[in-house]
Design brief:
GO terms for molecular function: ATP binding; ATP hydrolysis activity; DNA binding; nuclease activity; zinc ion binding. Keywords: ATP-binding, Cytoplasm, DNA damage, DNA excision, DNA repair, DNA-binding, Excision nuclease, Metal-binding, Nucleotide-binding, Repeat, Zinc, Zinc-finger. It is found in: Cytoplasm. By secondary structure, the chain is of the alpha/beta class. It folds into five domains: 200 residues, 3-Layer(aba) Sandwich (Rossmann fold); 127 residues, ABC transporter ATPase like fold, CATH 1.20.1580; 126 residues, Orthogonal Bundle (Helicase, Ruva Protein, domain 3), CATH 1.10.8.280; 180 residues, Rossmann fold (3-Layer(aba) Sandwich), CATH 3.40.50; 116 residues, ABC transporter ATPase  like domain (ABC transporter ATPase like fold, Up-down Bundle), CATH 1.20.1580.10. The chain has 33 helices and 27 strands. The strands form nine sheets. The chain has a six-stranded mixed β-sheet, sandwiched between helices. A hairpin with a 2-residue loop joins strand 22 and strand 23. The longest helix is centred in the middle third of the chain and has 23 residues. The radius of gyration is 31 Å and the shape is globular. The two termini are 43 Å apart. The structure holds adenosine-5'-diphosphate (2 copies) and zinc ion (ZN) (2 copies).
Length: 827
């Protein structure tokens, strides 16, 4: 590769071997992804797409054409990138791995049919086809209904007092009431005293009479006006409460509206298919006594156990069938063999606890990437380069060996692997290392080393070398003493059954365990919900992703807090979700530091003279922004058949503001120039302005000095978003008594960045707060005050507290799968 200049890359020349495991290392923001994905993968994709018809190209998520002079010897590439925050498409484990297709084939061709039923096609075993879907629930498995009780929760109220809670609020509800007045219903009698016939009509009718409406008239005045045929204010259309609920549910684009009407809907298992989503004919076909839905709900590990005897030809099927349909036995064996072999790859990657039915939005990005990896392992491609993004994310050290074996398998099959990784065990396993740095952003973008791992030891400037070759010993740490305990009892969720757990307060706790053992269920789900509930704090809304509507089975959840809440005043989750989904949000707006900057501009003499307020300096407000691009700084150019390109706005040239606004300067810089500064530069520039400076100090401390203040949220990685959130918390006045919960905060972080993160988390604890972190990195676990190890295995083989105590204590546990790795590190 010659002359790579994508993002921060500094005109890089590089030679890397094919048919090898090449690992790209470097601190967060150094340019690893820009090299591996932004340049190598993007170029491979571009070349491939040239051979594809323009029409088909539209179906690809096309990368931008990379800034690079030349690349030679590049094989076709397959990217297995982690989707950061972006909602994944609605699919299931079975469809992503294509295992569901095979299972349907198995049922169609080798299933046990009831006597007299003819063979049905594989499609009829999918709830997503007309042939397969249960006709009652259309393949959803649940039916939604409304009842008088669900829509009228308090029947002592009158209609005027809004007895019909399911009707729209504000004007919409008044309108319906006025229509009822015209229709002669008594809106001033308690609901329960109205005749049942009237109540049923008002709630459930499909009729939509259009009637004259006289808002503000009493019922008597209305009746008189009707008799006189007085001109009405308008004609109103009646809509029963049920109609309103279902219509809104089906048609609204607003998640809030959807959520509001959902509270009036009851969902029950479909009575026809019992929630199994398929036609009775499809469900009547069994394999090993399971119908296809039952099989799809079992953990993969169990399915493999059921199918193995068939694959090996040792299963005894009905003798009659053997003689009458010998071909069926052969087909069963073939398909079972294939299924068992494919599932084995998933088991090896530590995913045996998943079921085929599990929907992908409920999987972690790491689990999803490993599912895709497993699918590739079985695709028998040859001569391809796989580009992977931190495949170890979410993996317990005991699962990492299997990952390495899987990567080795792809390589042996004749492929190349380019992997962006932070995990030292994976890095040590590389055939070739490319270390990018030395630091992030402008201070990075150079190749510090390219060669076999041992050679990196000589490279002074490398931050990776220090961690890779220095001894294993963890930094000495004396655990702090808890100030109290938060106790949970009767916790039931996913694989946790009636669990007791206690979390120490005022210290730093890590929760460990193999992937799928139940850490997230306990910490990110139950603990977060119970504490938020107890504080009366609203939960962050997830319905954007439409997940609540997707769920086919209601999740069983239970548990309560028995002690410890008196010393928790606030709950904060710091996750890796984007700080905004549009280029309109950025670090400066998110942290609040931009508010102060805008006030400084509004206070300049020129701004005062022209009566510009702080709002004038926002690119989201019409007054000050460039109208041509609406403050975006660029305009989108749609190209038929090609990815749309963003071009700088021809009017403001990317400045985002109109010319008048840009005339105002603060210490010789206009507002656009300030947004273009890096945190480091701004830290010097605003040294005399305490509110701005304070925010910048913390941003530097969390290692984000290289980011530009106005860098759009959409360009930030998950790790960067997380650190911005953390910095925003840290700059608040330290109140103490806050509970911070983080799920795998070290994902995407170089060991050097992890160290910075730990300093910040420890600062939070020193200030009187509690920090609870789900974690796999043993250095972090060793440096915490308390460890709770969940396990021992995954899925139903986990879900218990295996060991709890100070790191040194847990390291001695005989049952814990974490203990050996912790012991190794603690020396
Ligand atoms: P790494 O993978 O090492 O964490 P990246 O390659 O993602 O680093 O980023 C390298 C630099 O390029 C960083 O300064 C980052 O902010 C910047 N960058 C990343 N994505 C974009 C983008 N889409 N547009 C502009 N700059 C970007
Ligand atoms: P960990 O965080 O330790 O990797 P999880 O708490 O995510 O483990 O998962 C524990 C078990 O619960 C696994 O068997 C997993 O498949 C199951 N599980 C987790 N989340 C969901 C969900 N949203 N729906 C169904 N099952 C789930
Ligand atoms: Zn049904
Ligand atoms: Zn513009």
């Amino acid at each position: 590769m010659r002359g790579a200049r994508e993002h921060n890359l500094k005109n890089i020349d590089l030679s890397i071997p094919r048919d090898a495991l090449v690992v790209f290392t470097g601190v967060s923001g150094s340019g690893k992804s820009s090299l591996a994905f932004g340049t190598l993968y993007a170029e491979a994709q571009r070349r491939y797409l040239e051979s594809v018809s323009p029409y088909a190209r539209r179906l690809f998520h096309q990368m931008a054409v990379p800034e690079v002079d030349a690349i030679e010897g590049l094989p076709p590439a397959v990217a297995l990138q982690q989707q950061r925050g972006t909602p994944t498409t609605r699919s299931s484990v079975g469809s992503v791995t294509t295992l569901s297709n095979l299972v349907r084939m198995l049922y169609s061709r080798a299933g046990d049919y009831p006597p007299g039923q003819s063979i049905i096609y594989a499609e009829a075993f999918s709830p997503n086809t007309a042939e397969g879907a249960c006709p009652t629930c259309h393949g959803l498995g649940r039916i939604y209904e409304v009842t008088e009780q669900s829509m009228v929760p308090d029947d002592s109220l009158t209609i005027r007092e809004r007895a019909i809670a399911a009707w729209p609020t504000a004007w919409g509800g008044q309108n319906q009431r006025d229509i009822l007045v015209t229709l002669g219903y008594d809106v001033d009698r308690p609901w329960r005293e109205l005749p049942q016939k009237d109540r049923d009509w008002i709630l459930f009718t499909d009729e939509q009479p259009v009637v004259p409406v006289y808002p503000g008239y009493t019922p008597e005045q209305t009746q008189r006006a009707l008799k006189r045929k007085e001109e009405p204010s308008y004609m109103g259309t009646f809509s029963s409460a049920r109609r309103h609920v279902f219509h809104t549910f089906a048609n609204t684009n607003s998640p809030q509206m959807k959520k509001r009407v959902m509270q009036f809907m009851l969902s029950t298992d479909c009575p026809n298919c019992q929630g199994k989503r398929l036609r009775p004919e499809s469900l009547s076909v069994k394999f090993a006594a399971y119908d296809i839905t039952e099989l799809s709900r079992l953990p993969l590990k169990k399915i493999a156990a059921i199918l193995t005897p068939f694959a090996e030809g040792t299963a005894s099927r009905r003798e009659q069938q053997e003689t009458e349909h010998p071909e069926q036995t052969i087909v069963a064996q073939r398909i079972a063999e294939d299924l068992v072999a494919r599932i084995k790859v998933l088991l090896d990657l530590g995913l045996g606890y998943l079921s085929l039915e599990r929907s992908t939005p409920t999987l972690s990005p790491g689990e999803l990437q490993r599912l895709r990896l497993a699918t590739q392992l079985y695709s028998h491609l040859f001569g391809v380069v796989y580009v992977l993004d931190e495949p170890s994310a979410g993996l317990h050290p005991s699962d990492t060996v299997a990952l390495l074996t899987a990567l080795e398998g792809l390589k042996k099959a004749g492929n190349s692997l380019f992997v962006v990784e932070h995990n030292l065990d994976v890095i040590r396993h590389a055939d070739w290392l490319v270390d990018v740095g030395p630091e992030a952003g402008e201070k990075g973008g150079e190749v510090l080393y390219s060669g076999p791992p041992e050679g990196l030891q000589q490279v002074e400037a490398s931050k990776t070398a220090k961690y890779l070759f220095d001894g294993h010993e963890a930094p000495g740490h004396t655990p702090r003493t808890p100030t109290g305990w938060l106790q949970l009892s009767g916790v039931t969720r996913n694989n946790l059954h009636n669990l007791e757990a206690e979390f120490p307060l005022g210290v730093f706790t890590t929760v460990t365990g193999v992937s799928g053992s139940g850490k997230s269920s306990l910490v990110s789900q139950v603990l977060v919900e119970l504490v938020a509930d107890s504080l009366g704090q609203p939960l962050p809304t997830e319905e954007e992703e439409g997940e609540a509507l997707e769920r086919t089975e209601p999740i069983q959840t239970d548990g309560h807090i028995t002690a410890g809440m008196e010393s928790i005043k606030r709950l904060v989750r710091v996750d890796q979700k984007p700080i905004g989904r549009t280029p309109r949000s950025n670090m400066a707006t998110y942290t609040g530091l931009f508010d102060h900057v805008r006030k400084l501009f509004a206070a300049t003499p020129l701004a005062k003279e022209r009566k510009y307020d702080a709002g004038r300096f926002s690119f989201n407000v019409a007054k000050g922004r460039c109208e041509n691009c609406q403050g975006e700084g660029f305009v989108m150019v749609e190209l038929l058949f090609l990815p749309s390109v963003y071009a700088p706005c021809p009017v403001c040239h990317g400045a985002r503001y109109n010319a008048k606004t840009l005339e105002v300067t603060y210490r010789d810089k206009n507002i656009a120039e300030v947004l273009a500064m890096t945190v480091d530069a701004a830290w010097e520039f605003f040294a005399e302005e305490p509110p701005v400076h304070r925010a910048l100090i913390v941003l530097r401390e969390v290692g984000l000095g290289y980011l530009r203040l106005g860098q759009p949220a959409t360009e930030l990685s998950g790790g960067e978003a997380q650190r911005i959130k953390l910095a925003t918390e840290l700059q608040r006045a330290q109140r103490g008594n806050t509970l911070y919960i983080l799920d795998e905060p070290t994902t995407g972080l170089h060991p050097a960045d992890v160290e910075k993160l730990l300093v910040q988390l420890n600062n939070l604890v020193e200030a009187g707060n509690t920090v609870i972190v789900v974690e796999h990195t043993m250095r972090v676990v060793a440096g915490s005050d308390w460890v709770i190890d969940i396990g021992p295995g995954a899925g139903e083989e986990g879900g218990k507290v295996v060991a709890a105590g100070a790191p040194a204590q847990v390291a001695q546990s005989m049952e814990s799968k974490t203990a050996p790795f912790l012991r190794h590190l603690l020396g």
